[in-house]
Amino acid sequence: MTIILTNDDGIDAPGLRSLLQVTTLRNMRNVAIVAPQRPHSGCGHQVTTHRPFQIECRNPAEFAVDGTPADCTRVSLSHLFQDGVELVLSGINPGGNLGADVYTSGTVAAVREAAFHRIPGIAISHYIQRRRPIDWDLAAQLCLKVLDKLMFQPLQPRTYWNVNLPHLDIDSPEPEIIICPLCTQPLPSAYRLEKEHLHYAGDYGKRARDPGSDVDICFSGHIAVTPIEL
Known about the structure:
Blueprint: E1 2-6, H1 14-25, E2 31-36, E3 55-59, E4 62-65, H2 69-80, E5 85-94, H3 106-116, E6 121-126, H4 136-150, E7 159-165, E8 177-179, E9 191-194, E10 197-200, H5 214-219, E11 223-229
Parallel strand pairs: 1-2, 1-5, 2-4, 5-6, 6-7, 8-11
Antiparallel strand pairs: 3-4, 7-11, 9-10
Helix pairs in contact: 1-4, 2-3
């Protein structure tokens, strides 16, 4: 049985390499990367059915797909690894996928597609605060901590995990892993008008939040873990 790593930022993204580092630290075997050739951030659950697309085999355990994250999961299950896929891990996405984000996120769509096929999946994202760079080594450590917990958590069929890592300072306390619901508040919908064109001007960090929801937990410096049922 194979463990698939994918994302929506492209096969060469640092977050995917950080996720690969986690699987190495955890001694996971039969790990394969099946990721988009180029970034598809915000593509949601788009799939490619209107045109042919290619799969570039970089090595026996690494495939670059000329398609979306959901495509990557689909071809992994139906074409590349017909002997079986045990788990799909998607990420680590640079930027949160909290609350309403799960409907537009390609990162989350990859594991939602796995859930449609009754395969467990974990989407992992990293909130970015004030445009500060991500410490990918620290992200890998937090991700490892999460996987060690979730591997022993029961997961119902048709359900997948959505994980959001906080953006920590050097002196931040150790974050807790908190299982919490998705926030139901809308994303900021502010725009500014310039020369008859609307420009999005929403402030992600000031989005509304339900108390105790994934947005609230992650923005408070903890790791938000949400089980999502189809």
